[in-house]
Amino acid sequence: MSKNYDLVIIGGGTGGYVAAIRASQLGLKTAIVEKGKLGGTCLHQGCIPSKSLLKSAEIYRQSLEAEEYGIDINDVSINFLKVQDRKQAIVDHLYQGIISLMKKGKIDIYEGVGRMLGPSIFSPSAGTVSVEMNDGSDNEMLISKNVVIATGSKARTLKGLEIDRDLILTSDEALELQQLPNSMLIVGAGVIGVEWASMLADFGVNITLIETAKQILPTEDRAVAKEMQRLLKKKGITVYTDAHLQVDTLEKNEIVKVQVKQKEQLIDLQADKVLVSIGRSPVVNNIGIENTAIEIDEAGFIKVNEHYQTKESHIYAIGDCIGGMQLAHVASHEGKHAVEHISDLDPTPINYQTVPSCVYSNPEVAHVGYTENEAKELGYQIKKGTIRFGAIGKALINGKSDGFVKIISDQQTDDLLGVHIIGGNATELIAEAGLAKVLDAIPWEIGETIHPHPSMAEALAEAALDINKMKIYG
To answer: What are the structural domains of the chain?
Structure first.
């Protein structure tokens, strides 16, 4: 059976379902093809469930430290099954919300695998989507004027360290653990690796973290990465940077044994489980790209222009499958932009320098714009201002006095180049910095904005004032 649409979206993750809602608002007859559950990785295997676990870990650690706040608590323990139940209840609630939004927008949902076809009797151009239905019923043929590919990404794996879903895991399997291991070796200290290291350490798991780069959180400002490493070690986490796992030494029995090479030294490690967190790869296979003129880059990502059009101008691609900033909020905005371009609304291209990036560890990390090294490599003469949270009253009240805010500006124009935060509420505070970037604010304007006292946000104003040696505290 064939059906006609203005827009068919392949992939129902954050980018896909947000694009569908925007298309519905603009009057486009829209369908989503999703082989799993709407919400995709972010809702079911990523952002939401991991942040739920991080919150439980934070509460547990705070309970252990309650005496510092004058609260006596005895016999604090973890019921990890209840932790998992809470996580799943949140996911289920949000999933039902998405289903309701689809019904409200009169968006058709096809549960199955979608593959694009080449030019055929159905359409003179490539892009008709054949859906192999999950329930085994006959394929559905969706003839659409436009297609958006939003197939996302999957966890990358390491040759020789194959995922067995028991001792060797990705974050997908780790989210389904029914009990906490005594120890875990985490390979990769990017965003996912650091979040899991922080969470599990707060739950009392013995963590070893390995990173091949010279610093953990390789995309963050060097000062932030250094502070994070210090605070992770303070939690009891063992951190190896500029280190390489020797996968040929891997031994698996009831535990995992393996060697890591740091400089010229071989170090023996063992743990109950290994978590592989070395980034994510685009999901672009088996969706019919070979039937189109769409181009793929050397890293496997779909090539698009500033409006997310592929080589086939009526086929767009957004989110993780095109590379760039692999973030849920980025995919959402790319999806909206693509749909608005389809609808001839002439949307402004996204300026990725205004997009906040966050690490939801304890402490949190967030940034927008350039790191200090990036700014210098681009030829900027910079000024910078900093304030440690230890000088901020609300941070002391909250028991979150570790960390700092760092602001970088152009020495010649005073333009804001980057804002970097490590500490309590960093992922909330960064929104103000993102708005400042969008409005092309200068640090003086942030500093002159009256911030409430006491508040964590005062740190932004103080760091901005420090650029011109005007900060009051610290």
So the answer is: 2-154+281-342 (3.50.50.60), 157-278 (3.50.50.60), 354-466 (3.30.390.30)
